[in-house]
Automatic annotation (TrEMBL), chain A:
Protein name: DUF5056 domain-containing protein
Keyword set includes Transmembrane: yes
Transmembrane segments annotated in the record for this chain: 61-83, 118-136
Keywords: Membrane, Transmembrane, Transmembrane helix
Organism of provenance: Carboxylicivirga marina
TrEMBL record, chain B:
Recorded superkingdom: Bacteria
Annotated family: Belongs to the sigma-70 factor family. ECF subfamily.
Key words of the record: Sigma factor, Transcription, Transcription regulation
Gene3D superfamilies for this protein: 1.10.1740.10, Winged helix-like DNA-binding domain superfamily/Winged helix DNA-binding domain
Organism: Carboxylicivirga marina
NCBIfam families found in the cross-reference section: sigma70-ECF
UniProt-recorded name of the protein: RNA polymerase sigma factor
Pfam families: Sigma70_r2, Sigma70_r4_2
Keyword Transcription regulation attached: yes
InterPro entries: RNA_pol_sigma-70-like, RNA_pol_sigma-70_dom, RNA_pol_sigma70_r2, RNA_pol_sigma70_r4_t2, RNA_pol_sigma_r2, RNA_pol_sigma_r3/r4-like, WH-like_DNA-bd_sf
RNA polymerase sigma-70 region domain residues: 24-90
Length: 142, 191
């Protein structure tokens, strides 16, 4: 009996499915879209648009750190020039041991010089790509 | 694919392109209106419900994460808005419960259906759907017309799986009953 019922239910289920093949949706009135868009437009004009800054706080610190590192590297590379300039000013070298400073700076500068230039270019290239990718991602999500 | 297009449109809307929302309305307005009407069973109110639902969807667009299809998310808003509208309305006594359906044993349900023209079938189906209980009609349309799974209907209504199944079963039975009654009337008018 149960099987028979299930069988009948399946037939009716199929019949309803067939019936729904001819089903047509109710046509929404034209006013629906117009009036909804009016509401949406009013809401849009009333709401202030807040843009998120492209560089957020975390990124800002990274950027400042990176900039400081870049400055210090450029200083190390050109330290000999600065020391020469210092000497020309006849600064009192009793307080600052310029020779040892020069030696230290010189050795660090030398170690940087020994690194093949391809490494610098690669690092700069990678960071440039990361930066560009992040920039465009930000633009896409504004 | 359809959902991908919807997601593209949603991104545009979030970027401030209001015109993209008009495209979403174009795409879903008839389905939304049909579903709203299946619950409120009044064209004027169905339009109000659909408008409200689209407006709510626009305002809540930031909450749409794309986990489910946009259509399912929109149907959920339509469902909730329509149910709220119904609650606000004075409870009307349905004459469905008191109606005695005469059954003719001579002709089967399928025989009667086959006797009708396609156009008449459409009319009869709409009439039968309008007589179903609100939530049942909504679920029946999603299940049979949109061919959504029980899980998708669960998401669209917020009802539990077992509840959806019960309502679907009850709706199917009621629909069949209404169809039978309407078919008998229709066939009687031919004789």
């Amino acid at each position: 009996m149960k099987k028979r019922l299930n069988h009948n239910e399946n037939i009716n289920d199929q019949l309803i499915k067939d019936l729904f093949k001819d089903f047509k949706l109710e046509q929404a009135p034209d006013t629906l879209k117009v009036q909804t868009m009016d509401k949406v437009f009013n809401h849009w004009t009333e709401t202030s648009i807040n843009y998120k800054p492209i560089i957020n706080k975390n990124n800002r610190w990274w950027m400042i750190g990176g900039f400081a590192a870049l400055l210090s590297i450029s200083f190390l590379v050109d330290s000999s020039v600065i020391i020469e300039y210092w000497k020309q000013l006849n600064a009192d070298s009793a307080y600052i041991d310029m020779d040892s400073l020069s030696k230290q700076m010189g050795s660090i500068s030398l170690s940087f010089k020994n690194i093949p230039s391809i490494v610098y270019f690669t690092i700069v290239g990678i960071f440039a790509l990361l930066g560009i990718d992040r920039f465009f991602n930000r633009l896409a999500n504004i | 694919m359809s959902n991908l297009n919807d997601i593209k449109l949603i991104k545009l809307i979030k970027a401030g392109d209001i015109g993209a929302f008009a495209q979403l309305i174009d795409k879903y307005q008839h389905m939304a209106y049909t579903l709203a009407n299946s619950i409120v069973k009044n064209k004027q109110e169905a339009e109000e419900v659909t408008q409200d639902a689209f407006y709510k969807a626009y305002k809540a667009l930031d909450k749409f994460k794309g986990d489910a299809e946009f259509s399912t998310w929109l149907y959920r808003i339509i469902y909730n808005t329509a149910i709220s509208k119904m609650r606000g309305r004075k409870a009307e006594t349905s004459d469905l419960d008191n109606k005695e359906v005469e059954k003719q044993e001579t002709l089967s349900f399928s025989d009667n259906l086959n006797r009708l023209e396609q156009k008449e079938r459409k009319v009869i189906l709409k009439k039968a759907l309008s007589k179903l209980k609100e939530q049942d009609a909504f679920i029946i349309i999603l299940y049979y017309y949109k061919e959504q799974s029980i899980e998708e209907i669960e998401q669209a209504t917020g009802l539990s799986k077992s509840n959806v199944k019960i309502k679907l079963h009850r709706g199917r039975k009621q629909l069949q009953k209404e169809l039978e009654t309407l078919l008998q009337d229709e066939l009687k008018s031919f004789i």
